[in-house]
From TrEMBL:
Function field: Catalyzes the attachment of glycine to tRNA(Gly).
Subcellular location: Cytoplasm
GO molecular function, one term: bis(5'-nucleosyl)-tetraphosphatase (asymmetrical) activity
One GO location term (cellular component): microvesicle
EC numbers on record: 6.1.1.14
Any one Gene Ontology BP term: diadenosine tetraphosphate biosynthetic process
Subunit relationships: Homodimer.
Transmembrane segments: none
Record key words, sorted: Aminoacyl-tRNA synthetase, ATP-binding, Cytoplasm, Ligase, Nucleotide-binding, Protein biosynthesis
Annotated protein name in UniProt: Glycine--tRNA ligase
C-alpha cells in the first residue's frame, strides 16, 4: 500500500465518522471488530444504492421474483450445501504475539507478518456464526446466521414455481444481511463480519447458461456506471479452475481499485445445478422443473450475480472522494451522481439574522422537500461554511435565497457542487430546473 492511497482511505474513514456516514460498531464500548453502524447519510447512500439495484434487477424486469427469506434457517440447509463441513478459511496463530491470521493472506505461512515470530500450525476455521433456536441448547436446536443470502432463495425455489409458474429462464432476487466470522476483518467495511448482499439466483436450462452469464456480465458493468463507481478502476478477473469454488464451472470476479489495493467488488458465478440438487437430495423434495409445453423435466442450472452492498457503498465513496481548490480555498467534496447523494438539495437564507430571508428560504425549502424528499434547510454559520459542509456530504445543489430574491423577484441562486458555479433560476422554474439536473 502506498502512502498516498493509505492516506486516502484514512481520509474517507475520518470523513465518514465526522459527517455521519459510518461509525465503528458499539464504539462507546471500545467497538466490536468487523461491525459497522451506518449513520443518517451512510444509510441514505446505502438505501439509494439498494433501491437502484432493486429497480434495475427486479422491478424493471419481467423475469425476476423478489424475496425476503429468514436469516435463521434450518441447520440442514447448511449441512446440505457443505457450509457446516467446509465454509472455512485457513487459520494460524503466532506463537509469540498470539495474533491470528488467515494463512492464505500472509506472505510467509511460517512467519508472523506483525512481529516476525514463528507461526503455529495451520487449521481450518469455520466462519459460520452458530446459535440455538428455542429454550433448549442441544444438537437439534442449532441454527446459523446465514453466511450468504443465496440459500434463502434456493430453498424457496419450489414455492416460487408453485405460486407463479414461471417460464425458464427466471430469477429470484434478495437483498439482506449475511454474517461470516471472518478471521481478519479489514479495510473499513470491506471485510466485515456482518454485511449486506444483493444476490440473484437466475435459473436457466443448462443448454443456455452462457447466454445468461454474458447478459449479467454486461448488466453488472452498466450497474457499476449507474451508481457512479469509477469504471476505470474496475476490472474483470477470470477465476482459474484451481481457484474456483468446486461447484462453479465459471466465475468472474469484478475487482475494484480500492484505496488499499485492487480487491473483489462483486462475483458472477455459474453454479450449475449444485444447489438445487443438494437441497433436493437432502430434503427429499423434488426440485425439478417441468416444461409445460414439451413435458421435459430438468433441474435448472444457476447463474449467480452476487453484489456486496457495503462494498458498493465503499466503492462509491472512494470514487466520489475529491480534493481541490475553489476560490483560493482547499476543499473536500464527494462527487456522487445525484441519485446516490444522501441529500439532493440544500436550501439556505443568505443571512440568518434577517427574518424575511429565513421565511422565504423556508417557504422554498418546503416546496423542494415535497418534490425531492432528501432536502436540507441550513442557516448555521456563514454561507461559505454551509457550502463546505454540503460539499463534504456530496449534496449536488445548494439553493440560496438572497436580497435579490425578495426585492427584485430575481429568483434564487443554485450552486453546482462540482464547479462551484452559481446560476440564477426563477422561483417558478426552480423545481423543473432541479428535476432535470437530478434525474
Ligand atoms: N452467494 C455467493 C457468495 O456469497 P461471495 O464471493 O462469498 O459469494 C459475494 O460473496 C459478495 O459479497 C462479494 O463479492 C462481496 O461483495 C460481498 N462480501 C463477501 N464477504 C464479505 C465480507 N466479509 N464483508 C463485506 N462484504 C462481503
Amino acid at each position: 500500500m502506498t502512502e498516498k492511497t493509505e492516506n486516502k482511505m484514512d481520509k474517507i474513514v475520518s470523513l465518514c465518522k465526522r459527517r455521519g456516514f459510518i461509525f465503528q460498531g458499539s464504539e462507546i464500548y471500545g467497538g466490536l471488530s468487523g461491525t459497522w453502524d451506518y449513520g443518517p447519510y451512510g444509510l441514505a447512500l446505502k438505501n439509494n444504492a439498494k433501491d437502484s439495484w432493486w429497480k434495475r434487477f427486479v422491478t424493471d424486469r419481467e423475469d425476476m421474483y423478489g424475496m425476503d427469506a429468514a436469516i435463521l434457517m434450518n441447520q440442514n440447509v447448511w449441512k446440505a450445501t457443505g457450509h457446516v463441513g467446509g465454509f472455512s478459511d485457513p487459520l494460524a496463530e503466532c506463537k509469540k504475539c498470539k495474533k491470528r491470521f488467515r494463512t492464505d493472506q500472509i506472505p510467509d505461512k511460517k512467519k508472523c507478518p506483525d512481529c516476525g515470530g514463528e507461526m503455529g500450525e495451520e487449521r481450518q476455521f469455520n466462519m459460520l456464526f452458530k446459535t440455538n433456536v428455542g429454550a433448549l441448547e442441544d444438537e437439534n436446536s442449532i441454527s446459523y446466521l446465514r453466511p450468504e443470502t443465496a440459500q434463502g432463495m434456493f430453498v424457496n425455489y419450489k414455492n416460487i414455481i408453485d405460486a407463479f409458474h414461471p417460464k425458464l429462464p427466471f430469477g429470484m432476487a434478495q437483498v439482506g444481511k449475511a454474517f461470516r466470522n471472518e478471521i481478519a476483518p479489514r479495510d473499513f467495511t470491506f471485510r466485515s463480519r456482518e454485511f449486506e448482499q444483493m444476490e440473484i439466483e437466475y435459473l436457466v436450462d443448462s443448454k443456455n447458461w452462457e447466454e445468461s452469464f454474458e447478459h449479467f456480465r454486461k448488466e453488472i458493468s452498466l450497474w457499476i456506471k449507474e451508481v457512479g463507481i469509477d469504471d476505470d478502476g474496475v476490472s474483470e478477473h477470470e477465476i482459474s479452475d484451481e481457484d474456483r469454488a468446486f461447484y462453479s464451472k465459471r466465475t468472474i470476479d469484478f475487482e475494484f481499485d480500492f484505496p488499499f489495493g485492487k480487491s473483489e467488488l462483486y462475483g458472477l458465478a455459474y453454479r450449475t445445478d449444485y444447489d438445487l440438487t443438494k437441497h433436493s437430495d437432502a430434503s427429499g423434495v423434488n426440485l425439478i422443473y417441468l416444461n409445460e409445453e414439451t413435458k421435459e423435466k430438468i433441474t435448472p442450472h444457476c447463474i449467480e450475480p452476487s453484489f456486496g452492498l457495503d462494498r458498493t457503498v465503499l466503492a462509491i465513496l472512494s470514487s466520489a472522494y475529491k480534493e481541490d481548490e475553489l476560490g483560493g480555498e482547499k476543499r473536500v467534496y464527494l462527487k456522487f451522481v445525484p441519485k446516490m447523494a444522501p441529500v439532493k438539495v440544500a436550501v439556505f437564507p443568505l443571512l440568518k439574522n434577517k427574518p424575511e430571508l429565513v421565511e422565504k428560504a423556508r417557504e422554498i425549502y418546503k416546496i423542494i422537500k415535497k418534490e425531492f424528499g432528501a432536502v436540507e434547510f441550513d442557516d448555521n454559520g456563514n454561507i461559505g461554511k454551509r457550502y463546505r459542509r454540503q460539499d463534504e456530504i456530496g449534496t449536488p445543489f445548494c439553493v440560496t435565497v438572497d436580497f435579490d430574491t425578495l426585492e427584485k423577484g430575481e429568483g434564487v441562486t443554485v450552486r453546482d457542487r462540482d464547479s462551484g458555479k452559481q446560476t440564477r433560476v426563477s422561483e417558478n422554474g426552480l423545481v423543473a430546473y432541479l428535476k432535470e439536473k437530478i434525474q
